[in-house]
Amino acid sequence: MRAARITTPVRILCLAGVLACLSLAVRADDPKPDASVKNTSIEASVYLDDRIKADAALAADCLAEGRKWIDKNAAEAAAARKEEPEFFKDRGGWSFERKYSVRSVVDNRYISVVRDDYMDTHGAHPNSDVNTILWDSAEKKRISIRPFFTETSDNGPTLTAMRKAIVSALNAEKKKRGASETATAEWYKELKPTLLKIGAVTLAPSTDAGKSSGLTFHYPPYAVGPYAEGQYAVFVPWETLKPYLTPEGTRIFAGARPKGDEEEQ
Prior knowledge:
By secondary structure, the chain is of the alpha+beta class. It has 7 helices and 9 strands, in the order H-E-E-H-H-H-E-E-E-E-H-E-E-E-H-H.
């Protein structure tokens, strides 16, 4: 009969040391926030990905916005804790996280950034939000998609065609998710053919280097469907909008959507 294996104190100590080293290694690999605050009312962090940090002006712009966002939420958390301290006693402070990440770089000039937010303010469930930035690295400023289209007036032909294509793409995506029952005018009523109401947009990457294959529109929970459906990111190919392109739009749009981009979104 095999003798029972005895775990000695030395072996236990060695194992504990190995686990501690592994834990430290994992924590060392965790990204450090580029801006943060932590107190009894709130823990909030902002992260910039490395591609954003490579552009000093873009990084400064995102970080300034992120710090304002932290300050605003910290003030609101402090006021809420002062008014209703019992809600903070057991659950701690509110939690916020914002991440800026590059979606595409077109013509070595136009950088599309996705801004993802996470918020937990002790409600029924945490919430998330998504927005985008289109950055002109030559002019060192944020821009809209206006330079790429001949006209972008409210309810004009360009944005009307854009909205029609978005709704078609949303309906297709909802069908894939088994959520066709929410593919309704009621859920799309806030989606309007105006630059401010059409949705947060990025230039989609392309199979042609340095080009864009079209536009991706990003919608947070509740924007075009109930919370349980989560976020939506829908793609409109550039060919759909070809009649409305300016010379600059014609120059930067080409190729097809890369394989796998849909899954990444």
